[in-house]
Amino acid sequence: MRKVIVSLIVMFGLGVGAGAALALPMDPSFAVMTQNLYLGADLAPMFTAPPAQIPFAAGAVFGMVHATDFPSRAKALANEIAAKQPLLIGVQEAELWRTGPPDSITPNPTPATNVVFDYKQLLLSELAARGLMYGPVAEVTNTDVELPAVTLQGLTDLRITDRALILARTDLPASTLTLSNPQGGNFATSLPVPVGGQVIPILRGWASVDVELAGQPFRFVTTHLESLFDPVGIVQGQELLAGPLNTSLPVILVGDINSDAAAGGIAYGNFVQAGLKDGWLLGGGGSGFTCCQAENLLNLPSDLDQRIDTILFKGPFHVMGAETVGDMPGDRTPSGLWPSDHAGVVLAMNIPAPPSAILLLIGLVSVAGAARVRRRLQ
Known about the structure:
The chain is an alpha+beta fold and 378 residues long. Helices cover 30% and strands 34% of the residues. It contains ten helices and 16 strands. It has helices spanning 2-13, 18-23, 44-48, 54-67, 70-84, 119-129, 230-242, 266-273, 279-283, 355-377, and strands at 26-36, 88-92, 96-100, 114-118, 134-151, 154-169, 177-186, 191-195, 198-202, 205-213, 216-224, 251-256, 277-278, 309-314, 318-325, 344-352. The strands form three sheets. Strands 1, 2, 3, 4, 5, 6, 15 and 16 form an eight-stranded mixed sheet that branches. A hairpin with a 2-residue loop joins β5 (134-151) and β6. α5 (70-84) crosses α6 (119-129) and α7 packs parallel to α8. It is globular, with a radius of gyration of 24 Å. The model is unreliable at 1-26 and 357-378 (pLDDT under 50).
């Protein structure tokens, strides 16, 4: 009891400054992560080609997707996750590549359904192979476009479905981790792109889940904002602030916001002005650059020169440390591919004990003090 009294005197009698705050009991400790998987190729040549050239441009894109070999990259990405074992992971560009009968540009009478690469399932399989128990708990489907493509197998339709999702550990008991209220949606604001005489909106979106970790509630959100036209991404960020981030719960926002935190990006600045704190500034070291490697992922040295993958938060979280992953030469696949064109970001955090725990300590001291007074009066 004397130790408790001394601790409380230090914490409350000397004032609650930065040192005192760190002395408060913290529980629990956990890590969160954001990772853009990289869809595997630059889609711009396919979208900007003249109508007659679209099948050849789409075929070249699909060839690059094969060359950047997500099955091998999934192993490298799973190794990163295994090393950190984050509680929650925000994943962007979890692409689904499918082929089917060649009939027309989106929308097609016969949608392509033959799965060639399912990035979500490939990553989950590699995690399971390492004994890691993760599962998708919230997901949003963004752009879903289908174009004719000339491939080695002949003319086919190539369907590209973009997804963002949240992975969570599934090996924790409900008494420790409870997830609820999964949500997801596309932004009302999107970038219209003319393709082959049609206008296709490039849909972006967000996914969220409400978390209770050892009795501490918060909302976890992942997103991927527009990269090709900054004004669209800025408006999408405002939609986030008015949507899933507009809650009384503490929030953690992770994702590829396509707004350079190191260069004063506007969308990033709007998040900070709205009260979100940047985990990298509180716990990271160095530049924290996360984007972008070469299209074929074979560049060396690294080309990362922007910080657009971020972990932002609002609420009673304490940052213990932050680091980038997948950005060192030793992280590459045996064939020399970077795990992604983006580095991942991992943030270690903990949550201060709730006020009730502090009040309990104060109550214990009060009881002890009263008992001592009684003893002196007897």
